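Q: Here's a chain of 308 amino acids. Please give me its 3D structure as C-alpha cells.
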Amino acid sequence: MNARLKQALIQNLAAHPAPWLLALSAGLDSTVLLVAIRELWPGQDLKAIHVNHGLQEKAASFEASARALCERFSVDLRVCALKSPASFTDGLEAWARQARYEAIEQVAADLALHRVLLAHHADDQAETFFINLIRGTGIAGLRGMPTAIERGSVVYVRPILKVERSVLLEQAKDWGLSWEEDPSNGDETFLRNRIRSNLMPLLESIRPGTKRRIVDLMGDLSESTPQTIANVAYLDLGPMQSHSAIEQRDALHRWVKQVALRAPSRARLNVLHELCFVSKLGRGHLRHGDFVFRRMGDRLLAEPRFFE
C-alpha cells in the first residue's frame, strides 16, 4: 500500500476506531478507501452505505458497482434509493446533499453506528479553498472541510483528506480495481469543475506542490481559529437563556453577521430565535449566505455550506 495513504489512515482513524459506516459512491475515492481499510484492518467491523439519488443515467451502474465491490470484500452494504421532489426550494444540488446526509444518518442510527467515513481527498480540499475564496466566505470558508466533525450522534471522518487523488489513482491501478466515473465531472458549468480542469493544473505547472501547500494552509487556519467544534464555528447559548428576548435576538444578529458577513433579515432572525430559545426540540436549520445554522444542544453551529 502507498505509504502516504497508509499513514493517513492510521493517523486519522486512531482517534475514531471501528465500527465504521463508509459512504460509498463507487467512484475512485470511496472505492480505494474501502479496499484500503479492508487491507489494513481485515477483521474490523466495516459497513457501507450507497445513496442512489436516481438523478443520473448511470445511477444503476453506480449502485451495481457498489454492490459488486462490497460482495468482493465482504462488506455489509445498505442501499438507499431516494425520490426527488417535484420542485427544489434551494436547488437540486442542495437537495441532493441534504437528502444524502439524512439517509446516511438514518442508516447509522438503524445500525447503532456513530462513525461515518467520507472519502474526500486533498484535491477536493484545495478546490474548496478556491470556491470559497471566489464566493468571499472569509476565514471560516477558507478553513475548508474538517477532518472530523460531529453532527448529533454521528462523527463524520475524512481520513484521506490530505492524500492527493493521484495517489488514490495509482493505488487503484496497483490493486487492479475498477470504479465508476461521474459524467458530471466534465461539465464546466460547475465552478468546481472549472477550478479542477483549468486553475489547479495551471498552479501546479507554475509551482509543483502548490496543491499540498494550500491544504496545509487550510489546516493552519483551522488550528488558529478559536471557538470551533471540529472546525465549525459555534455560539454558546447557555449563558443567554436568562436574557430577555430582545437581548437574545441582538446577540444572534451580531454573531450571524460576523460569521456569514451578512446580516440576517427580520424573518430569518425570527426563525433562529425560535430554534435557539423557544423550540424545546431545537430541530431544523436555517440557510444564510454560505452557511447552514443548526442548533445542537446549547450551541448554535455555523456549518459552511460545502459540508451540506
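Q: Can you summarize the key feature?
A: Confidence is low (pLDDT under 50) at residues 225-231.
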